Amino acid sequence: MPHAATLEIRGLSKQYQVKGETLPVLDNVSLSIKPGEFVSIVGASGCGKSTLLRLVIGLEDDYQGDILLDGHRIVGTSLERGIVFQEHRLFPWLTVEQNVGLGLLNADLGEARKRDAVREHIALVGLEGFERAYPYQLSGGMSQRVAIARALVNRPEVLLLDEPFGALDALTRAYLQQELQRIWAQEGITMILVTHDVEEAVYLGDRVVVMQPRPGRIKRIVDVPLPRPRDRGDYAFAAIKEDVLSEFSDHPRDELIAEPRERNAVEWQFSW
């Protein structure tokens, strides 16, 4: 099992230069993520969620503040941090096992150990029997599972997920959310998910970080103290979901989130 990392983001600010003018994207973002924690980040388009992931993965280094992994400042990309994007980005001329194996190109492992790691992670994402298949022979959900296996095969300390299920249909998305939760529990690593889907954020996260835009900053952090596996039809789940959604509404939160007795004495029964 990989070592789960502590991620510290302190006073993070980021600007871009657009047509000679400074465009602030992130402003004084601070967040501490514990080892093995699953943190979901939600926010409207333009709030800097994806930029935040790009900085954590090390694709950009022009920023103010600190991003620390186990106390060490992040500099450039590293095998310690994996990432999965909304598009699977598989190479169409490579098979499943070859695409997964790309994650080990820079790993200091012998060929036998690399083959074992690829086989193990293909099994982890439930794609045994598809090792020799090409991307065009896979569904969208299967392709994303290959991308997850590729990101995990070198056993990173942190896995970043940037809208990984955003392009999938609702049924496939719900299934892969369950699969991702299983993989997270089995691998025991720190995961950070960026999503527009509040239900997804609550279903998967230990905490939900709500960001607001222009420039991007943390508005609120909502704890999700629910046992796993989570029941989307449970009242407590629905209440936390509504609580997060209220952050994107013009109405005060206390008008949207009421105690059960204040809901005209109606007992809601959910069934899925």
Automatic annotation (TrEMBL):
Keywords: ATP-binding, Cell membrane, Membrane, Nucleotide-binding, Transport. Residues 7-238 form the ABC transporter domain. SUPFAM superfamilies: P-loop containing nucleoside triphosphate hydrolases (SSF52540). SMART domains: AAA. InterPro entries: AAA+_ATPase, ABC_transporter-like_ATP-bd, ABC_transporter-like_CS, ABC_transporter_ATP-bind, P-loop_NTPase. Signal peptide: none annotated. PROSITE patterns: ABC_TRANSPORTER_1 (PS00211), ABC_TRANSPORTER_2 (PS50893). It holds the Pfam family ABC_tran. One of its GO terms (molecular function) is ATP binding. It comes from the Bacteria. Belongs to the ABC transporter superfamily. This is Sulfonate ABC transporter ATP-binding protein.
